Amino acid sequence: MENLLKGKIALVTGGTKGIGKAIADKLARDGAQVVVTARTKPDEEIAHYFIAGDLTKPQTAQFIAEEILEKFGKVDIVINNAGANTSPGGGYSTLSDEDWSNEIELNLMSAVRVNKALIPSLISQNEGVIINISTGAAVQPLWKMTMSYSASKAALNAYTKALASELGSQGVRVNAVSPGMVKTPLMESFIADIAEKGGISFDAAFKSIKNEIGDLPLSRMGEPEEVASLVSFLVSPEAKYITGANYRIDGGAMAIL
């Protein structure tokens, strides 16, 4: 895959840590010029072009798009990775209107707005790839932990399929990637919070989540780099006949095809 993306401009939102950073680094190794966004610039050095922006604010996507097009003249690959489960667990009664709104803004509307701002550029080239990073929880929601998050990502999945249908004839491919439990700072913090609230160990909390899921044949969390490898393939010319798909990368967590 080395240099397979040479000459391509790629945007990775939420690209400074976790899965987003792994994707950004992988696309750069494949030859792409990578742009990453986050709300604030991290203290450590970033190897990619950085744009600060809070994508829960409606105007941010347009600002980011304008800077990319001014700086690089085009964009070829859009990875909508920004997202998180920010709401409290406990089920419907613990979730406020604000919790629901926050999840939808971060996990759905951030991608919708970024895509809307950059799709005209992709169409003008008659070529481009959009990957929306979703989650296995969108099709296997855990009411105690992910109700509003799962709902927002399920909406992202439906949007992905619809967008792929709309843009396919114009040369733009759109797919979703749905990680399961991946070893990121956010996931580890999520598990640690469950452990603290339950008065149990981290390993016991991880096991409790596995039990809620029902099964995890590979018996471990995934690595961010494993997700990045899948994304790298999907944005490459090797995947040029793939669009409108949702690829789960979850260690076999769901007992369905």
Automatic annotation (TrEMBL):
<dbReference type="InterPro" id="IPR036291">
    <property type="entry name" value="NAD(P)-bd_dom_sf"/>
</dbReference>
<protein>
    <submittedName>
        <fullName>NAD(P)-dependent dehydrogenase (Short-subunit alcohol dehydrogenase family)</fullName>
    </submittedName>
</protein>
<dbReference type="GO" id="GO:0016616">
    <property type="term" value="F:oxidoreductase activity, acting on the CH-OH group of donors, NAD or NADP as acceptor"/>
</dbReference>
<comment type="similarity">
    <text>Belongs to the short-chain dehydrogenases/reductases (SDR) family.</text>
</comment>
<keyword id="KW-0560">Oxidoreductase</keyword>
<dbReference type="InterPro" id="IPR002347">
    <property type="entry name" value="SDR_fam"/>
</dbReference>
<dbReference type="Pfam" id="PF13561">
    <property type="entry name" value="adh_short_C2"/>
</dbReference>
